[in-house]
Amino acid sequence: xxxxxxxxxxxxxxxxxxxxxxxxxxxxxxxxxxxxxxxxxxxxxxxxxxxxxxxxxxxxxxxxxxxxxxxxxxxxxxxxxxxxxxxxxxxxxxxxxxxxxxxxxxxxxxxxxxxxxxxxxxxxxxxxxxxxxxxxxxxxxxxxxxxxxxxxxxxxxxxxxxxxxxxxxxxxxxxxxxxxxxxxxxxxxxxxxxxxxxxxxxxxxxxxxxxxxxxxxxxxxxxxxxxxxxxxxxxxxxxxxxxxxxxxxxxxxxxxxxxxxxxxxxxxxxxxxxxxxxxxxxxxxxxxxxxxxxxxxxxxxxxxxxxxxxxxxxxxxxxxxxxxxxxxxxxxxxxxxxxxxxxxxxxxxxxxxxxxxxxxxxxxxxxxxxxxxxxxxxxxxxxxxxxxxxxxxxxxxxxxxxxxxxxxxxxxxxxxxxxxxxxxxxxxxxxxxxxxxxxxxxxxxxxxxxxxxxxxxxxxxxxxxxxxxxxxxxxxxxxxxxxxxxxxxxxxxxxxxxxx
Length: 500
Hints:
mainly alpha
């Protein structure tokens, strides 16, 4: 009787009628709970359907009944990995390989599990064994490349992808991974070439379109990025959240902010835990000056991700934007009391405490941030400003320089270093530092105000007047820009009635 049920289950499975096939396999196991063929088939299908718990139950039973069947141990390893039990998965896959020494796929699957568990060097060893056992298996070369890239062994990664491409010259996945490796190395032109080749091989391959569009967005080529995404979008079907997020970034770069917000919202409908989308929605509201809306977004993010450090940071930033530093301090301290800890939370807390002149507490929070992340540019910048406020300008200068070296694209480090240099009356160094900050944040008033102050110190009154005017055009109430404007007015270089 069971054989007939098994034949029917296989027929249903071959037709893609997965639920009916699962029901048939379940019926077979209910008739004969020791039927290892039915247990293996049911466990495999359940695992592929996303039910790792029930899959594991059936496969564990099958393994107890047929301990020398390498296929069962292989499926059990995958089910354990899907359930997050990487140690158990590794043990099961190693057993599978011991039972069948020629099972090259086993080494490949073991490498995948080790890579997912963060055991990168072990993954490289297993992937090399997979390549040795099955030298014409393209996936083995691909995974070896991915593992080497994760270990930042880029030459070996490129060699592995190259071997795979010798076997499959137009393989979109290999071309995508090779492009990503070039991108990690900073070889942007080579990365773009690989991504475009991958798209030529398969124009509807969304991960490649997404990678190419992201690369173009980094280069501020927003219009090209959007065209790539539009060309790859299928006429029907639901787009993945990550793809919609990149669409939002391209639209935002083009200034089509309402459409960008719509794309981010669509991404969050599919993946509510996408922190980057919440962050971009928050920044859209902030840049529009709609701080109430930004607060709403921060609260939405906190509801979607109640234990996310980034969501806590959004709530604190919203409070700081409204001038409620004490509220921000309480929100951040509450997060820490609930065990939500990150270098960014400590850095933000240190900054808020500094503004409230609670300098010793600020220093302690920033020490904790730097203990967790010694090269965090924002934490180093905040620490520099706190040391400056405490009067230790030598320490402040060292921290400011570390901030700019650790995060050369983070405006916070240059602003902190520039502030310290102004305090030391190092006008020329301050000018260069604030000029760099202005390049990094061209729409911000703070770097221009600092630059105006440095130029004033150098005696370049015309230059100071021009930068001051630009700062006040961006933020008419900017305190530092208005102070420099007042000094220039006294020098007779600007009219008393206003800047410019």
